Amino acid sequence: MPRGSTNKGPPSDDFGWKWGEAVDGQRSRVRCTFCDRVITGGITRFKEHLAAKKGNVASCYQVSSHIRKEVAEQAENL
Ligand SMILES: [Zn+2]
């Protein structure tokens, strides 16, 4: 789907937006499509939530282990 000049769609090209959506159009607040928790701190923090990275954010308890692994691997390559 081509990206036009509207504000629809993900706020950036980051792959993390596959599983999150900006709350009220603010990309610093990301709602998890798995557990409905709102992660503040942006898409990077949200990916830590999905990947269950310890330290900064609560882990997602509903994401599948397959996606958790995918996010963790892709996040390492950034
Ligand atoms: Zn979650």
UniProtKB/TrEMBL annotation:
Annotated keywords: Metal-binding, Zinc, Zinc-finger
A Pfam family that the UniProt record links to this protein: zf-BED
Domain BED-type: 17-51
Highest taxon above the source species: Eukaryota
Entry GO MF terms: DNA binding; zinc ion binding
Protein name: Zinc finger, BED-type
Species: Corchorus olitorius
